[in-house]
Design brief:
heterotrimer, A mainly alpha (about 325), B mainly alpha (about 350), C alpha/beta (about 500), B: mainly alpha, ABC transporter involved in vitamin B12 uptake, BtuC, C: about 500 residues, alpha/beta, 6-stranded mixed sheet, 22 strands
């Protein structure tokens, strides 16, 4: 029995391959190390956010506030560092941003796990609370004079160079952050009881309660962890763009959720894989950056992403509905 | 009125609580800054400001009554506005006056409403026939609608309308702003629809228990389809108001309105799990929001702070209502252990 | 309270539980020996669920003592009860559909060991051992959502065993099983008993599990009214103890009328559910359709009302063809359907009693799109009065009513539409004894008024008491047709099972 998830993952993989084939045919420059390294760079922030969003979907919720968490953590950290400790080493800056993100995630957790409110509406609310707070009380100026070590980090590369054929490539260390997040999350999800509990509460909250899983604690972990990931994604974003822009990132949440549901995570909870999510991210990044290469004007970007969401979630939903009708 | 009633008594309802809150906010704002808040200019400008997002809130309300949600309302509004604006600039243009202008405005309005109906129909099909969760269906379709508007305009604003277009958003009729009249008509219409028609009762019953609705021989697919079509058409009216007030149409106008519309619906007592909601509550929520944001404006509070306060209010209202909903939810999914 | 029974696994003495003035349990003693199977019988509201909740730590008793394995337990919680080896298998099994069989089985025991890390291989090993212990072969890596009901139940049993259960409490264990599956379950229960695991069956239909049980305990109105060796009980005496009277009523006998044919079902087919079903029903006839779970009776009932779309066949009502697979068309053809599960399928729980009835009549009271509220409410109120629904306020939520009155509300919704034919699926499930008899009276009256009534049920006394004719389904086919009054309960039970 092939599960829907495998099918979703294969579907996305097939679309990605098709995309690349068409792109390569119409533009011979597409299949180069340069394109690959550019796409990889573009996947870092989106990928980290997507892993977090996936975790929330698995637990049976939905989070739309993580971009606001990311930008708030990044901007507050930058401001703090500039005001009090401009010479902060990059890892302290990163840690601060991650902690701030976790703290904001804890606010989501308070409303969701504490009061048991619907996750979409809570995170819609916190999205504007976080952003409103940031822009009102912290600041609304774009800062390009970042703390030196934050700028420094964006220059640190794993590999950089030019291939024999003259293609330039550049793999920043921030890519390692994505790899670390993926590995850590995979470990939590598959190798710890906490991770299995996240799947369990997504599968059935009632059953989880009956067998003695601490549902609240699990939910708190999910939202705090997602906040921490958002804090990391935010500071990476700031560092890679060499600017702390309080207006950035917010609005990206739809693309992130699109990537996750394309990868097979389901809104009802309990389902989602890291492989699928990363494939979804890859597809979204391709659409965002290379749509023009396959002959679709880039103004059609959000139509394409929207259509992908509808197709990617509509097909399995329709199949499930048909199967239910057949079973009687 | 005594004897059996089909509606709960108003005094016992959350709407009554909300009415008190609305009055309190009004009194507070009036007390903080009487000469400005109570000035005719302020009152009129408030009446011009709120209808556009209030109409979107009505659209969200009817979908929330079924236990769904419409996250595409802003996308539909902008797409409708862009279509109307394209017609107005391409065929009429800024110089056209008189009957020709009115005719083209009429055509543009019909086209915009048509866009809203088609968009809503698409949402309805996705939710009812294909069984997509409303959140994902309307999130995806919202991107498509916004994207179509971007694709049509290349992302820039469409402007240069005949002067008559301003009537929708900026004119008054017997001293009453036209957008306010539009909102009042739609709100009253929705109220009647929900409380006085078979369709309205079916919407409520479906929201209360979709499975029981199926077993009670309610044509659930058709009910859902109609609900989303209505939401789509309401959104396009909002789009026209926005277009007229801005004297232009653009794919990303009113991006903060989605949050606001959901907030107003929830604040107005609509149960996000479906089965309960009254237009009176939504209207009261709109008024209290407008008093609040107008008052904050007068106190020189920034737009960002308003976003902060709105979000905070949404969370606060949810926490206050949580006991009611917790009960509703438990009853919707009865445990079989007893 | 006497000296503790040192051999007992479970010893509950003088258990009383009061909720806000209502006494749910009144001085109940309940003892289970190791390896013993006990039937805990009682109607809905008899207190059996409360007793189980107290034993499994979900509820605290108001008075009384609980000993597990001789040890006095105070402040019992579900986790502590599980640690002491008392595990409950709920009717819905409480499994995780998205997780594998192995994980579902191993989850609780791993939680109980306070593990932080999850070891897939160890979980598989645990699961494999337990499955082997009861001699069942279920693929370890299958997702539970893809399993048939009987396998889900076995997974739930395995999960209890993985926690080193000494007592497994099974809530309504056989209702969802086919005859063959019940056989297998009983075999497994015997096996467990041999290993010293005790079992408590909680049910209101116990005939099937009597043969593996040593003891029967019957509760009624919170009191223990009977206790004794299982051999001393049969289905009839159990019912008598549970209800406190002989409920068997005279059969209405064979249908005497000469009324014309109302319903004609021809060669209805739905692969996997039922095949080639044909029958006729006359006006005024009360027709029973019975069969074990999986016999296709519920699918057939739903198909008659359009909730299930048959692949082929024909339904004719009063000479008119009824479109297949369309409940709205079926309702328009004046067929009514009262579902089995009132709480999730039948009623709009948050809505008022009036609305629950009025929802069926929206079309008829609509004038140019607007509802005639007065007529709508008036009519709904009339029907509620005619069906003797007892309530202080018709605007109160329908949840404020008792099970019997709720069922009347569901009936009123359809009767208000003046149906030609009414399908009642499990008309008295979860209804107290007194109301049950009244609902049976209503069913007989409906027939007398000229409606065609189809009663879908596996409650044999109910069928015998209400139906002129009973059709028996087995494996998706109509296998037997029995005239009312010509058969006893035991014979009917045999025909269903054989």
């Amino acid at each position: 029995m092939t599960s829907l998830i495998t099918r979703n993952e294969t579907l996305v993989a097939v679309v990605i391959v098709l995309f690349c084939i068409i792109a390569a045919v119409s533009d011979p420059n597409f299949l180069t190390v340069t394109t690959l390294s550019d796409l990889l760079r573009a996947s870092i922030v989106l990928g980290i956010l997507a892993v977090g969003a996936m975790l929330v979907l698995i637990s049976g919720g939905i989070d739309v506030s993580f971009t606001a968490v990311a930008v708030s953590a990044m901007y507050m950290t930058t401001k703090f560092s500039l005001a009090f400790a401009p010479e902060m080493p990059w890892f302290l800056i990163f840690t601060l941003s991650v902690l701030l993100g976790a703290g904001l995630g804890a606010i989501n957790a308070l409303f969701i796990a504490g009061f048991g409110l619907p996750t979409l509406i809570v995170t819609l609310g916190t999205l504007s609370v976080f952003r409103g707070f940031l822009l009102t009380f912290v600041g609304s100026d774009r800062i390009s004079a970042l703390p030196p070590d934050m700028r420094e980090f964006s220059r640190m590369v794993i590999a950089r160079g030019t291939t024999e054929s003259g293609d330039f490539y550049n793999l920043p260390w921030s890519l390692a952050a994505l790899v670390a997040v993926v590995l850590l999350t995979a470990f939590i999800l598959h190798k710890t009881m906490l991770g299995r509990s996240i799947f369990a509460i997504g599968g059935s909250v009632e059953s989880a309660r009956r067998i003695g899983i601490n549902v609240r604690r699990t939910q708190v972990f999910v939202y705090v962890y997602v906040g921490a990931l958002a804090g990391l994604a935010g500071i990476l974003h700031g560092s890679m763009n060499r600017m702390a822009d309080p207006f950035s990132l917010v609005g990206l949440e739809l693309s992130v959720i699109a990537a996750v549901v394309l990868g097979g995570a389901r809104l009802i909870g309990g389902y989602g894989t890291i492989t699928g999510t990363l494939l979804g991210v890859a597809l979204i990044v391709l659409v965002q950056n290379s749509l023009i290469v396959i002959g679709i004007p880039s103004t059609w970007q959000s139509v394409t992403i929207g259509a992908l969401i509808l197709l990617g979630t509509g097909l399995p939903a329709y199949q499930a509905k048909r199967a239910a009708a057949r079973a009687g | 009125m005594s004897g059996p009633r089909i509606e709960p008594k108003l005094v016992e309802s959350p709407e009554f609580r909300l009415a008190i809150i609305t009055v309190l906010v009004f009194v507070l704002m009036a007390a903080l800054s009487p000469e400005r808040f109570l000035s005719p200019q302020n009152l009129t400008s408030m009446a011009f400001q709120f209808p556009e997002f209030a109409i979107l809130a009505l659209a969200v309300t009817i979908t929330m009554m079924t236990g769904g949600i419409d996250l595409s309302v802003v996308g539909v509004a902008n797409l409708s506005a862009v279509v109307a604006a394209t017609i107005l600039t391409a065929f009429a243009g800024a110089g056209v006056v008189g009957a020709a202008a009115v005719m083209w405005l009429g055509i543009a309005v019909v086209a915009a409403m048509g866009v809203g109906a088609v968009a809503g129909f698409l949402n309805g099909i996705l939710v009812s026939r294909f069984g997509l969760p409303p959140i994902l269906a309307t999130l995806g379709s919202g991107l498509v609608f916004t994207g179509l508007a971007v694709a049509m305009t290349g992302g820039s604003a469409v402007m240069g309308f005949p002067a008559v277009v301003a009537v929708i958003g900026n004119a008054t009729l017997f001293y009453v702003p036209v957008p306010l009249i539009l909102f009042a008509l739609l709100a009253f219409g929705l109220h009647v629809l929900l409380t006085r028609t078979g369709f309205g009762l079916r919407v409520t019953m479906y929201g209360a228990n979709p499975l029981a609705a199926l077993f009670a021989a309610i044509d659930v697919d058709r009910v859902l389809l109609k609900v989303y079509v209505i939401a789509g058409m309401f959104s396009s009216v909002a789009g026209l108001v926005i277009m007229s007030r801005a004297n232009s149409a653009k794919a990303d106008y009113g991006s903060s309105y989605l949050l606001l519309a959901v907030l107003i619906a929830v604040l107005g007592g609509v149960n996000p799990y479906g089965g309960y909601g009254r237009v009176v509550g939504v209207v009261l929520a709109v008024l209290s929001m407008q008093f609040l944001s107008s008052g904050l404006n007068m106190l020189q509070v920034s737009n960002f702070a308003r976003e902060l306060i709105w979000g905070g209010l949404l969370l606060l209202v949810m926490v206050i209502n949580v006991t009611n909903w917790a009960g509703l939810r438990a009853r919707r999914a009865p445990a079989k252990s007893g | 309270m006497g000296s503790p029974d040192t051999d007992a696994l479970i010893e509950m003495r003088g258990i009383t539980k009061r909720y806000a003035g209502v006494t749910a349990l009144d001085e109940v003693d309940f003892v289970v020996a190791p390896g013993e199977a006990v039937c805990l019988a009682g109607e809905n509201g008899s207190g059996k669920s409360t007793l189980i909740k107290v034993l499994s730590g979900v509820e605290q008793p108001t008075e009384g003592t609980i000993r597990i394995g001789g040890e006095r337990m105070t402040g019992l919680t579900p986790r502590r009860a599980a640690a002491a080896g008392v595990l409950v298998i709920f009717q819905d099994f409480s499994l995780f559909p998205n997780l594998t069989v192995a994980e579902n089985i191993a989850f609780v025991s791993e939680l109980a060991e306070h593990r932080q890390f999850f070891n897939r291989r160890a979980a598989r090993e645990t699961a494999r051992r337990v499955l082997e212990r009861i001699g069942v072969d279920i693929p370890l890596d299958a997702r539970v959502e893809h399993l048939p009901v009987a396998h889900k139940q076995l997974v739930a049993i395995c999960r209890a065993l993985a926690c080193e259960a000494r007592l497994i409490i099974m809530d309504e264990p056989t209702t969802a099983l086919t005859e063959r599956e019940v056989r297998r379950l009983l075999g497994i229960i015997r096996l467990l008993k041999d290993e010293g695991v005790a079992v408590v069956f909680v049910s209101h239909k116990l005939a099937e599990v009597l043969e593996v049980s040593e003891k029967v305990v019957v509760l009624r109105n919170g009191r223990k009214v009977a206790e004794g060796p299982a051999e001393d009980f049969d289905a009839a005496s159990l019912t008598r103890h549970m209800t406190g009277r002989d409920v068997a009523r005279a059969s209405p006998g064979a249908f005497g009328g000469t009324a014309e044919t109302l319903l004609k079902v021809e060669a209805l087919n739905k692969p996997g559910s039922f095949s080639n079903v044909s029958f006729e029903m006359r006006r005024g006839e009360v027709l029973g359709i019975t069969g074990l779970l999986g016999s296709g009776r519920t699918s057939l009932a739903k198909a008659l009302f359009g909730l299930v779309a048959p692949d082929s066949g024909r339904i004719t009502l009063d000479g008119q063809n009824v479109p297949l697979g369309d409940p709205v068309a079926a309702a328009r053809a004046r067929i009514g359907y009262v579902p089995e599960d009132r709480l999730t399928e039948g009623l709009f729980l948050t809505q008022s009693i009036l609305r629950n009835v009025a929802v069926g009549r929206l079309d008829s009271h609509e004038r140019r799109g607007f509802l005639d509220m007065k007529a709508l409410i008036g009519e709904a109120g009339d029907w509620l009065t005619r069906l003797k629904v007892k309530t202080p306020s018709l605007s109160a939520p329908v949840t404020s009513l008792s099970g019997g009155n709720q069922q009347r509300v569901a009936l009123a919704r359809w009767l208000a539409r003046a149906p030609k034919m009414l399908i009642l699926n499990g008309p008295s499930v979860g209804v107290d004894v007194g109301s049950k008899a009244e609902i049976h009276d209503i069913i007989r009256d409906l027939g007398a008024q000229g409606l065609g009534v189809i009663v879908i049920s596996d409650d044999l006394p109910e069928l015998l008491a209400t139906c002129h004719r009973i059709l028996v389904m087995r494996g998706g086919e109509m296998v037997e047709e029995i005239e009312g009054g010509s058969i006893t309960e035991t014979e009917l039970a045999h025909k269903m099972a054989s």
